[in-house]
Write a structure and sequence with these properties.
The structure is a homodimer of 132-residue chains. With 132 residues, chain A is an alpha+beta fold. Chain A has five helices and five strands, in the order αααββββαβα. Chain A is 34% helix and 20% strand. The A-B interface holds A 62-63, 84, 87, 95, 97, 100, 103-104, 107, 109-111, 113-124, 126-127 and B 62-63, 84, 87, 95, 97, 100, 103-104, 107, 109-111, 113-124, 126-127. Strand 5 (117-124) of chain A pairs antiparallel with strand 5 (117-124) of chain B. The structure holds a DNA duplex (30 and 30 nucleotides).
Chain lengths: 132, 132
DNA sequence: CTTACAAATGTTATATTATTACATAATGTT
DNA sequence: AACATTATGTAATAATATAACATTTGTAAG
């Protein structure tokens, strides 16, 4: 049974914003958007983001310093993330591919080391941008 | 035949520093280290870093905002990078594994899309840290 | 219920990472 | 030499993220 995380007030405000967004959001853009709800300081945003990342409700797109809601309905694999990033329009999608995640989770490097966690970012042109 | 890039003065200073370093270096730590050589401003560092990344002599470790020299003697695959990162001692190594790079370069997502570029960061404990 | 602990909040200040804008110099090509 | 491209120098500022400290809220045990 998965642990239930009851989001706190700030966490909920910030998660809802990210979850509704069609694109990854940056911390200060989040801050700007939630100021009307009484969240005034960067730290309040970063603390909520840290927690949401920790419990797997959102992911950080490292190459963009931006945050996206987890797209895996059964969000077990927050430690094993893969994203598709369009270098033209910056559209980001989470890749949820069992073969890929199995391949990477089972990957052994040349020294025989295994990893419990990874983040993979693919770059290319999305369909729309490719056809332009 | 691979294009030869003659590094400029600043590029060479900064590449040499990164190449000699046993660990990834951060931009402002680089700046501090090269001030005695007449590089005074962040922008001079970032410009050199950008170029070095572009030509594949160094890579950026996105999750750490740090830079490491490319470890692939035949440095063809600067667009396809994989790293091992120790979450305890922060040691970073480039993974140069043909099966992995083939697998990822040939990966098709569920929409049939292919990617010409990726960055993969694995996290775990290195041997030293695991045995503590 | 109340005590105690952990988690979250609020606030100010500051650290770290990165870019804009503009002027000049060096290098490579024809 | 003329031109284009790449690199440099410098100042200012933008964008991203954390430290430190005080207070409040949520939760679980007695």
């Amino acid at each position: 049974m998965e642990k239930q995380h009851n989001l706190s007030k700030n966490q909920k405000i910030i998660f809802d914003l990210i979850d509704k967004s069609p694109e990854p959001l940056k911390a200060y853009s989040i801050l700007f958007n939630v100021q009307k709800k009484g969240i005034n300081a960067p730290l309040q945003v970063y603390r909520a983001l840290d927690k949401l990342v920790e419990i797997g409700k959102i992911h950080k797109i490292e190459s963009r310093n931006a945050f996206i809601a987890c797209q895996n309905s059964s969000c077990q694999i927050s430690k094993a993330t893969a994203f598709s990033i369009c270098e033209s329009c910056e559209k980001v999608s989470e890749i949820n591919n069992l073969k890929l995640s199995k391949y990477l989770s089972n990957f052994e490097d040349d020294s025989g080391m295994r990893y419990n966690k990874y983040n993979l970012e693919f770059f290319g042109l999305c369909k729309k941008c490719k056809s332009k």
